[in-house]
UniProtKB/TrEMBL annotation:
Annotated function: Catalyzes the 2'-O-methylation of the ribose of cytidine 1402 (C1402) in 16S rRNA.
Domain of life: Bacteria
Signal sequence coordinates: none
InterPro entries tied to this protein: 4pyrrol_Mease, 4pyrrol_Methylase_sf, 4pyrrole_Mease_sub1, 4pyrrole_Mease_sub2, rRNA_ssu_MeTfrase_I, SAM_MeTrfase_RsmI_CS
EC number: 2.1.1.198
UniProt domain Tetrapyrrole methylase: residue ranges: 1-197
Species assigned in the record: candidate division WOR-1 bacterium RIFOXYB2_FULL_37_13
Coiled coil: none
UniProt similarity note: Belongs to the methyltransferase superfamily. RsmI family.
Name of this chain's protein: Ribosomal RNA small subunit methyltransferase I
Primary enzyme class: transferase
Record's catalysed reaction(s): cytidine(1402) in 16S rRNA + S-adenosyl-L-methionine = 2'-O-methylcytidine(1402) in 16S rRNA + S-adenosyl-L-homocysteine + H(+)
């Protein structure tokens, strides 16, 4: 069996009893960064061997893990944080396992997008998750243009180095809207900022943007008046 195991997005206590048990019981853990996952395993006294699985060895390692699974071994797949496959490695292995008739079992837990949405105060009935935006300005504009009429919440994974630029694109294409910046969730410097592209840009005018960020944008029409909620 291949277990797809979610791990914490910061606070190491955010892991399920079941995830700890499965990680202890499988024959091997395929991990995006073995040193990173070792910290989690040490905290819970898990001794299972680790094998790296990241974007530079996906092809060879997918074949290797499928061979082990076909031999009857049980494997767990984890990424550095949250749910594997969600803007993280994992999809190739899951796909290959399915094609080879291997059972794929989810072991659910944290994911930054859902965690951020749950405290955003924005519409949770309908949302679209874009993962990371493209790098080129033209492509970013195109993505946002396609969502001008979308009336649910738009969720994006964003780098601290690009946040301010992205807020500019939002203002330019989507107009002033309610925005939520969920930063360093579950960690020491956790912060959830609510405002508009301009008010949030202003709030970072005298400090550096740092840490891991989920950016959420209110869908529907732009605000007539640019005051934050
Ligand atoms: N697989 C992960 C998940 O399920 O959320 C996402 C992995 S993706 C490579 C990493 C991105 O997720 C970060 O750049 C950031 O946008 C977001 N992220 C991860 N942890 C976060 C946290 N603690 N607070 C805010 N955003 C986080």
């Amino acid at each position: 069996m291949l277990f797809v195991v979610s791990t914490p997005i910061g606070n190491l206590e955010d892991i399920t009893f079941r995830a700890v048990r499965i990680l202890s019981e499988v024959d091997l853990i395929a991990a995006e960064d073995t040193r990173h996952t070792k910290i989690l395993l040490d905290k819970y006294g898990i001794k299972t061997p680790l094998s790296s699985y990241h974007k530079f060895n996906i092809k060879t390692k997918t074949d290797y893990f499928i061979t082990l699974l076909k031999e009857g071994k049980n494997l767990a797949l984890v990424s550095d944080a949250g749910t594997p496959s969600i803007s993280d490695p994992g999809h190739e292995l899951v796909k290959a396992a399915i094609l080879n008739g291997i059972e794929v079992v989810p072991v659910p837990g944290a994911s930054a997008m859902v965690t951020a949405l749950s405290v955003s105060g924005l519409d949770t009935d309908k949302f679209i998750f874009l993962g990371f935006l493209p790098k080129k300005p033209g492509k970013i504009r195109k993505v946002f243009r396609g969502l001008i009429e979308f009336d649910g919440t738009i969720i994006v994974y964003e780098s601290p180095y690009r946040l301010i630029k992205t807020l500019k694109f939002i203002q330019e294409v989507l107009g002033e809207r309610h925005i939520v910046v969920a930063r360093e969730l579950t960690k020491k410097f956790e912060e959830v900022l609510r405002g508009t592209p301009s008010s949030i840009t202003e709030s970072f005018s005298n400090r550096e943007v740092k840490g891991e960020i989920v950016l959420l944008i209110n869908g529907g029409k732009a605000l007539e008046n640019s005051n934050p909620a």
